[in-house]
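Appendix B. Raw example, untouched.
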Amino acid sequence: MRVLVVGGTGFVGRHVVARLLQGGHTPLVLSRTPGELPKGALHLLGDITREVPSLHGVEAAIYLAGIIRERGQTFRAVHVEGVRNLLQALKQAGVGRVLHMSALGARRGTGSRYYETKAEGEELVRSSGLSYAIFRPSLIFGPGDEFFGGVLRGLVCAPLPFVPLIGDGRFPFRPVHVGDVAEAFVQALERGLEGTFDLVGPREYTFRQLLELTMEVLGRRKPFLPIPLGLMDLLVPLLSLLPFAPLTRDQYLMLKGGNTAPFPEALRDLLPAPKALEEVLPTYLRC
């Protein structure tokens, strides 16, 4: 199957492209600049937020484009306008199938522009009239991830005698492995799965437990220094003004809200043995 992949050069996209090739499909990777692609993948030059090139010969599309920080691109451009442009191009080309990556917790009224624009993207897909599957992953872990390899690693490896703990650290999460995310997308494509599905890993953790596990993997032993949420509420808007803010406003709002859900029964056939965090973190986390 010839499959258009939007966001195929990103963290999740690289795994999806590799899994498509493994399944005998031909990924057509749309990106703004030519990049190095694995053998068998084809490159389409274009910017999904502006225009979509000809989709002649495309049989299905996977939309993975997403940003967690607004640097040059906005949440609305990537999560809403890009989706709108793709859906219009698919209809014009007579392509009837789209798979979309949203986010667990995406909904209106959260105050998080990330969540709210992801929710708008979902609404566009559902109302498109196309056959669709929407996946809503929790925190995604694996080599190159931004949360474990970025935020948590930064907190643990910082040259401080303590590890900052936001509030009481009880916010719940259910992280999912990037390879399992790719597997879910390709299996759904091949099986014709339709609907909206939360995508989570095998176990739930609190934020504090995730920090403890990160310290264990990195061989660091430090006490926690709890930072009251009231103080964080004042600090984060100021920190967000920095060019390389350690924690953005949207990340903070999502962190306070937690990110968990039961494992969907509908995905048990697709992912019978999802990878555990304890198994994977030691393979790539380093200070």
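End of appendix B.
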